[in-house]
Design goal:
alpha+beta; five-stranded antiparallel beta sheet; three-stranded antiparallel beta sheet; 8 strands
Length: 210
């Protein structure tokens, strides 16, 4: 926790940056707060709920009450406390003047808070963008997956048909080849029988002639 001085008035302040370290410092001070979806922070003061943005300072005033101060205004009004810088006693009139100035500054600077830190992304906007992307891309992804699945299935079926046709053709070739071999064997046996008969007739005729 750093200490700052405004016109010799010492206050304790924490700059809210949305990080766990700054939240831990606020917890150590006993501050009760709630965080918004857009990373804003809301505290309860005597004037009701006050909301700050990332970069704002949350200070504990000398009255013992927490306040939220815009970063630019805070840096104009306060400077970091130095060890050698004396701290003057605070009188009641200075307290009232500080509170009046703070209220006036809050009224005039409230519209500019969001502009000062508008470069921080809005979580709702990011979520909406992600949802929009998913709405657009999801059908395309599903269409690609379905087409890929169908193509793969068709290719598998085609390969199975080719394999089955090849097996049928091979089996048919084997059957035809076996039939040809069997027929060739039969033809060879018939030719051998015919040649044997002719040879026997020739020998018989030669004996008769003798």
């Amino acid at each position: 926790m750093q200490e700052f001085i405004k016109k010799n008035i010492e206050v304790q302040a924490v700059q809210y940056d949305g990080m766990p370290e700054s939240l831990e410092e606020l917890n150590n001070l006993g501050l009760q707060y709630k965080l918004g979806e857009d990373s804003s922070i809301t505290i309860i003061t005597s004037r009701g709920e006050v909301t700050g943005e990332i970069g704002d300072y949350i200070l504990l005033s000398i009255t013992g009450e927490f306040e939220i101060c815009n970063r630019d205004k805070f840096l104009k009004l306060y400077s970091e406390k130095k060890d050698e810088e004396p701290v003057q006693p605070v009188i009641q009139s200075e307290i009232k003047t500080e509170e009046l100035v703070q209220k006036e500054d809050e009224i005039t600077s409230e519209p500019s808070k969001k502009n000062n830190f508008s470069f921080f992304p809005n979580l709702n906007f990011i979520t909406a963008c992600i949802e929009l992307i998913m709405i657009v891309l999801l059908p395309l992804i599903m269409n690609f997956v379905v087409k890929k699945s169908i193509k793969t299935t068709v290719e598998n079926i085609y390969q199975e048909e080719i394999q089955e046709e090849s097996n049928n053709l091979l089996n048919q070739t084997k059957i035809e080849a076996k039939a040809l071999i069997d027929q060739a064997k039969k033809d060879a046996v018939l030719e051998a029988d015919e040649a044997f008969k002719k040879e026997m007739e020739r020998l018989t005729n030669e004996r008769v002639k003798k």
